């Protein structure tokens, strides 16, 4: 291979030997090659004494007026060679001669010279062979001149390098050229990136001495040079600092002395996991707006970094990267891109074309599509990444895709995976502060998606999650919703058409915004239980069509006391609970709330409940039943009001209204006139302890009711946050003195010393619970009504004793009491 000699001091001189005394042969013209600076030429290759030695190889070829000639190196002096025609049938060129080395530099069809965008690595012993040369004249002895200079750099490490990329954001490195003063002068300004191909096996680096690499560059001043390498697996990248300056001179070596810094590759990547998939990109324009012009590069082990062409309309004329199983393609911004979309109807989006059931995973840092060198964490422009993977039906797993932006713009990520019907796993969404429409219909039509990503955002914006999982028919469980403050339309249609959804998220927010939950679960035909809706005041269209067509729905808890807002409950239960498998349908509403404006279908039962939520352990919350439990002689009931309790004298005791119950392991014995079961053991449970389905009650249409355990009573009264300020004894409610009032979690109001009927109605709507001082009984004797309260827990102490709560106007105890005492029972049910 012919090559250069330069940047050397004290190089030995050698005479050039004539190897072509007879230039005319039967096979046509024979050319003899010489080199400029021949006095510095060595007959072997390698770096020595600061210089470079070169030789010709039998695989070398030159182009003489477009006719290719192959080398015949001199055995004695390999720095010299003769050249004969590659193909005997080619006509002899006519003088004067214009000669290029290697022959591939000259395109004989287009009649132009081109510096290639991919150079081939030459191992030590042939380092200068990559350097293009030029000769001209009428003599058959050709004196070659080096058209470029060499950029030299050293890489250290233990990786095996597959490709090296050299780029400059402001100056071309390759492309068509003319020869001026023996130097290649580019006539194009587009080829600002070139690749050094290190072969299929790559080049394994050395951690101590490193490895030298050489890239041929046109002469000139470079101000924004950047160098990076990729390993054979494409998994890692080493980058030189960008914007580094260098002056390249023709026929000289410039030693780039900067040490590269190793970092994990994070470019956007498609990995073929089976079959065959071709990756492309299309520009979608609207009638009034064009998608932004962007520049991307792509990389494979076969190609190195190359310019990526984007198609228009149906994707025609775009670059198509064909992948087979196990192969990868990486994408990055060529310079920088503001956004890949201008609007919801003008955007750039990837395409996947599969054969043999081809599938791909997508991974890497999506921000490298905006800046390949310094990917940030801010999305500054609206619609960024809109429809990015639209209808990519081959994408299966996106769990490795990183969306690190913490500062978002409106409509970012909207419709990002719209129509990705094979997608099973979504990427993480770490942003905690959202923007308008930022996840709008992000996974619409992803019918294979079974698990939703975690949604940690606490600061919402209008329509931010609207339609996010629209039509995700494989989704079975909704993600938790962390936000405590909503924005208008933020969850509008979020799970519409999720026909496999069986578990809905908890909706704890009590201050609503217009249309916030509109159509949220519309058409979720597998959903049986709706999330509790704790807000007391509704806003315009906030619950409209929320559970419409949820045909297997059996229960809804809606605690609003103000439903005057326009359309707030429009069609919210239309066609809900209509499946033939549904045997009961219950709407739990706030106590005292009438039916006006609630739009409850006639087939649904209305049950009044209390709105407050109470912590009874670190991870368990409950609501209280609307009143104490009693037996009317044939069935269980709940007292109409929280302060209701049996009368205080033996004469007035009513066998048909038994409100003081004995602790027992069966429901049948708990209301008996006396307690005689002496068979209880420490493993026995109160008949409604809530530990399983057999230990709960359904009363007045409300199911899942049970009694708190001793530990749960203690946690509620003493342990939960601000417990001491959320409880008050000795309060008069209506006509009953010495009641104990318990406020729900997070209550910030004041508990009064007494409440008349009207005042208690207001306090009850705020979630306050009243445990009346209902006294107790032994046999049929009732005592202490209005003085003390005794409430059973579900915890057995030992044979003959169980734990209970006991209070008067100033004291509160938990203790163990004999089972033959008749105490009150206040039931709870899960609020989760």
What would you note in describing this structure?
2% of the residues lie in helices and 34% in strands. It has 832 residues and is mainly β. Strands 27, 28, 29, 30, 31, 32, 33, 34, 35 and 36 form a ten-stranded mixed β-sheet that branches. Strands 12, 16, 19, 20, 22, 23, 24 and 26 form an eight-stranded mixed β-sheet that branches.
Indicate the mean pLDDT.
Answer: 87
Note poorly predicted spans.
Answer: 1-26, 38-50
Give the tally of β-strands: 57
- Taking the alpha carbons of the first and last residues, their distance comes to 77 Å
Rg calculated over all Cα atoms: 41 Å
**What best-fitting shape do the alpha-carbon axes yield?**
elongated
Largest sheet data: 10 strands, mixed
Strand content: 25-35%
**Secondary-structure content class:** mainly beta
The total of helices stands at 2
Helix content percent band: under 10%
List keywords for this structure.
832 residues; 10-stranded mixed β-sheet; elongated; mainly beta; 57 strands; disordered N terminus; single chain; 8-stranded mixed β-sheet
Structure summarized in a few sentences:
This protein is mainly beta. It has two helices and 57 strands.
Question: What are the SSEs and their pairings?
Answer:
Blueprint: E1 24-25, E2 28-29, E3 31-35, E4 46-48, E5 51-53, E6 61-64, E7 67-73, E8 81-85, E9 97-101, E10 106-107, E11 112-115, E12 118-120, E13 133-137, E14 141-146, E15 149-155, E16 160-168, E17 175-180, E18 183-186, E19 193-197, E20 203-204, E21 211-217, E22 220-231, E23 236-239, E24 244-248, E25 253-256, E26 261-264, E27 268-284, E28 296-300, E29 304-308, E30 311-312, E31 321-324, E32 328-333, E33 341-343, E34 346-365, E35 395-397, E36 401-402, E37 555-558, E38 586-590, E39 605-609, E40 614-617, E41 620-624, E42 629-631, E43 636-638, E44 661-662, E45 697-699, E46 702-705, H1 710-719, E47 727-733, E48 736-742, E49 754-755, H2 757-765, E50 769-771, E51 776-778, E52 781-783, E53 789-798, E54 801-807, E55 812-818, E56 822-823, E57 828-830
Parallel strand pairs: 3-14, 12-19, 15-25, 27-30, 34-35, 34-36, 37-38, 38-39, 47-49
Antiparallel strand pairs: 1-2, 3-8, 4-5, 6-7, 6-9, 7-8, 9-13, 10-11, 11-17, 13-14, 15-21, 16-19, 16-20, 16-22, 17-18, 22-23, 22-24, 23-26, 27-31, 27-32, 27-34, 28-29, 28-32, 33-34, 40-41, 41-57, 42-43, 44-56, 45-46, 47-48, 48-50, 51-52, 53-54, 54-55
């Amino acid at each position: 291979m012919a090559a250069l000699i330069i940047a050397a001091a004290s190089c030995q001189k050698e005479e050039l030997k004539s190897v072509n005394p007879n230039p005319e042969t039967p096979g046509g013209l024979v050319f003899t090659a010489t080199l400029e600076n021949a006095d510095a030429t060595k007959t072997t290759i390698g770096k020595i004494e600061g210089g470079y030695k070169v030789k010709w190889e039998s695989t070398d070829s030159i182009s003489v007026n477009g006719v290719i000639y192959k080398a015949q190196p001199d055995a004695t002096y390999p720095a010299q060679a003769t050249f004969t025609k590659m193909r005997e049938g080619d006509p002899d060129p006519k003088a004067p001669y214009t000669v290029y080395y290697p022959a591939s530099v000259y395109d004989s069809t287009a009649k132009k010279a081109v510096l290639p965008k991919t150079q081939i690595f030459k191992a030590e012993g042939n380092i200068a062979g990559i350097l293009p040369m030029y000769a001209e004249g009428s003599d058959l002895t050709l004196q070659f001149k080096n058209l470029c200079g060499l950029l030299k750099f050293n890489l250290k490490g233990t990786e095996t390098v597959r490709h090296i990329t050299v780029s400059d954001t402001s100056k071309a490195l390759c492309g068509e050229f003319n020869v001026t003063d023996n130097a290649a002068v580019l006539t194009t300004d587009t080829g600002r990136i070139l690749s050094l191909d290190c072969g299929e096996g790559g080049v394994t680096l050395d951690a101590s001495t490193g490895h030298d690499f050489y890239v041929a560059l046109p002469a000139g001043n470079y101000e924004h040079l950047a160098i990076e390498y990729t390993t054979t697996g494409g998994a890692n990248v080493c980058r030189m600092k960008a914007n580094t300056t260098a002056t390249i001179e023709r026929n000289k070596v410039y030693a780039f002395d900067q040490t590269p810094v190793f970092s994990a590759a994070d470019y956007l990547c498609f990995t073929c996991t089976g079959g065959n998939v071709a990756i492309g990109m299309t520009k979608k324009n609207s009638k009034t707006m064009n998608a932004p012009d962007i520049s991307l590069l792509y990389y494979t082990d076969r190609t190195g970094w190359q310019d990526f062409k984007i198609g228009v309309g149906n994707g025609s004329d775009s670059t198509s990267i064909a992948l087979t199983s196990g192969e990868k393609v990486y994408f990055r911004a060529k310079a920088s891109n503001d956004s890949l979309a201008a609007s919801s109807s003008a955007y750039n989006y990837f395409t996947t074309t599969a054969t043999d059931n081809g599938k791909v995973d997508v991974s890497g840092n999506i921000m490298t599509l905006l800046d390949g060198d310094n990917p940030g964490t801010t999305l500054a422009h609206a619609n960024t990444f809109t429809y990015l993977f639209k209808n990519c039906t081959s994408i299966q797993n996106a769990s490795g895709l990183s969306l690190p932006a913490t500062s978002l713009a409106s409509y970012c990520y909207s419709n990002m995976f719209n129509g990705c019907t094979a997608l099973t796993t979504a990427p993480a969404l770490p942003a905690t502060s959202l923007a308008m429409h930022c996840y709008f219909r992000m996974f619409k039509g992803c019918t294979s998606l079974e698990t939703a990503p975690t949604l940690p955002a606490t600061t919402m914006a209008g329509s931010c999650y609207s339609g996010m999982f629209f039509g995700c028919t494989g989704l079975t469980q909704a993600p938790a919703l962390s936000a405590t403050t909503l924005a208008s339309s933020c969850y509008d249609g979020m799970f519409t058409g999720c026909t496999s959804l069986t578990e809905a998220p908890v909706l704890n927010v009590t201050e609503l915004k217009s249309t916030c939950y509109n159509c949220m679960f519309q058409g979720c035909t597998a959903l049986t239980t709706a999330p509790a809706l704790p807000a007391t005041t509704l806003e315009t269209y906030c619950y409209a069509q929320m559970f419409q067509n949820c045909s297997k729905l059996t229960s809804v808890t809606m605690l609003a006391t103000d439903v005057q807002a326009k359309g707030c409950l429009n069609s919210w239960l239309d066609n809900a609970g209509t499946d033939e498998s549904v045997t009961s349908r219950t709407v739990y509403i706030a106590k005292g709330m009438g039916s006006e404006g609630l739009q409850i279908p006639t087939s649904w039962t209305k049950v009044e409940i209390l709105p407050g939520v109470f912590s009874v352990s670190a991870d368990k919350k409950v609501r209280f039943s609307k009143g104490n439990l009693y037996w009317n002689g044939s069935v269980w009931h709940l007292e109409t009001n929280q302060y209701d309790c049996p009368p205080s004298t033996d004469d007035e005791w009513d066998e048909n209204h038994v409100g003081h119950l004995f602790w027992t392991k069966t429901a049948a014995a708990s209301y008996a006139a006396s307690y005689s079961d002496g068979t209880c053991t420490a493993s026995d449970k109160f008949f409604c302890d809530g530990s399983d389905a057999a230990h709960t009650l359904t009363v007045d249409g409300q199911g899942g009711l049970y009694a708190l355990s001793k530990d749960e009573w203690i946690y509620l009264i003493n342990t939960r946050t601000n417990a001491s300020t959320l409880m008050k004894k000795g309060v008069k409610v209506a006509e009953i003195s010495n009641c104990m009032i318990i406020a729900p979690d997070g209550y910030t109001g004041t508990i009064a010393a007494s409440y008349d009927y009207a005042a208690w109605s207001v306090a009850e709507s705020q979630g306050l619970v009243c445990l009346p001082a209902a006294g107790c009984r032994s046999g049929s004797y009732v005592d202490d009504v209005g003085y003390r309260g005794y409430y059973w827990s579900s915890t057995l102490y030992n044979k003959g004793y169980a734990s209970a709560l006991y209070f008067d106007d100033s004291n509160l105890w938990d203790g163990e009491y004999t089972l033959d005492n008749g105490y009150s029972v206040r039931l709870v049910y899960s609020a989760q």
